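One thing: can you check what follows?
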Amino acid sequence: MKQNTAKSGFTLVELIMVIAILAIIASIGITKIGDLRASSAKRVNIYNLQQLTRAASIYVTAKDTTTGIFDKMESLVDVSESGKWTGTPGTYDWNKTDLTSYPGVYRGPKRVSDIKDAGGGGADTTNQTLDQQRKNNQGLTDSFINKVGIYYISTNDVTKFKNAGISNYLLHNYVAGQASLFGFTQNEDGTPLENGGPGFRADMSAFYKVSLVPGSPVVVLNPIAAAGIYRALGCDLNLTAEEARFTNTAQAVEKANTLIAASRMSYRLFCFGLGRTSVFARNGLDSVPRSEIVGKDYYRNYIMVFKQPTSGPSGQPVSFAGFLDPNGNTAEDARFNTDWY
């Protein structure tokens, strides 16, 4: 008598169905992991902002003197062909933030450059476009760039910055290659260059240390575009609803100039990048965190803010105010974004 033999395994149709189901489950899992990672990065970002602010406040209080305690911060400003560059002391320039302004506010590579090796050798020409050379380094985020401009410090400001612990800063490499492209072998004071200055890495582009002098460019927050930051850091400018309203960067610049002309910008907020070679990082922190809320092709160091009242006696003091993340958010802004997005 012939008996049917039971067969194990899947038919082709069943196997295809199983694979499809597993693929769906895997895609859902990957999406959830990605969401969890992004959410975690946002919460770590808030924690870092809070801890850095606390650490800096303790650091200042614990020091017997403030001389040099915040030296070698990253300027967020390009180097020039000759190194240091200056403008008219006591003036603002809101037009130094685009890719055609070099030197200007740091945006990563701003011009096509010959590709060089670490020793300065390499081809004399390159067929790469600027977009290709910017692929790994977009510089500061657009969100932050839209909130800032340049202020050229006065003679009194130089003294006040020194009293706050800032007598020098590091300028950034704005080409996609080693710092040797500029022909610099050492800082202006003869000390070794910092970070190597590779322009293809945003987090290591600050390399050339210069002393602050009258006319030195410092990144300043626009009082209109960054009105919320001024308010969050205890420097409320008391703007009316109409004064604070703007629809684009050009309008924010126009309104900022009007505010300045009327002597109603009662504070200035200055920004510096917290690099790994800064004196504060070396002496006040166990390690220097980088924010994970932006990609590695952007500047990910946290941004240290200093405030200066502009009313009253000439040469008002400069002092530590707080920290921003790479998008130019305070801890309060970052917390709101985490809760709602």
Remarks:
- DSSP finds nine helices and nine strands in the chain.
- Residues 12-340 form one domain.
- The CA atoms of residues 228 and 236 lie 8 Å apart.
- The beta strands are 73-78, 91-93, 148-152, 168-172, 206-211, 217-221, 267-273, 303-309, 319-324.
